[in-house]
Amino acid sequence: MTDFIELGYAGLFIASFLAATVVPFSSEVVFSALVFGGLDAWKCVFVATAGNWLGGMTSYYVGRLGKLEWIEKYFRIKKEKLDRFTEKMHKYGDWFAFFSFVPGVGDVIAVAAGYFRCRWWIVAVSMLAGKFVRYVFWMYVNGMLF
Q1: Potential cystine with 113: which of 6, 18, 118, 128 (Cβ 3.0-4.6 Å)?
Q2: Alpha-carbon distance values, 105 to 2, 49, 67, 91 (Å)
């Protein structure tokens, strides 16, 4: 964790990217440490959003490839779990990707959006909005705590 913090904005970008992919990781810890360490909070929001969004879109494209063995091996998401999202994806459509920031199910949502062939540009926009809201919220929570 300290390696990411020492890299500053670049470390935050990498940590945020990894947190949205196959690596179980919390980018919020790096984000908070950098903000409390004196880096510009809004710049951290934009860097973390960009990294997390690109990581989420990477998950989307892996899902879009439709190779269940890759999804199960690298993301540890079983087909049954993807199938549970079928109804939600059909009901809420591509905009459901907004919730890809939610811990625990966010990776599944991003992969499912790709797997079910949701329109990439709506997924990209809604995912970007969700990730941005997440880090803005986190920035304000950190400001309220200290």
Answers
A1: 118
A2: 26, 18, 19, 17
Dihedrals phi, psi of 18, to nearest 5 degrees: -65, -35
Task: Kindly provide the b/e burial profile for residues 117-144, where b requires at least 16 CB atoms within 10 angstroms of the residue's own CB.
Answer: ebebebbbebbbbbbbebbeebbeebee
**73 half-sphere exposure, CB direction, 13 A CA radius:** 6
pTM of the shown model: 0.87
Tens of pLDDT, residue by residue over 66-95, are 888 888 887 777 888 777 777 777 777 788
Distance (Å) of CA 16 to CA 1, 5, 24, 115: 12, 12, 11, 23
32-56: buried (b, 16+ CB within 10 Å) or exposed (e) per residue?
bbbbeeebebeebbebbbbbbbbbb
Tell me the C-alpha distance between 6 and 38, whole Å: 13
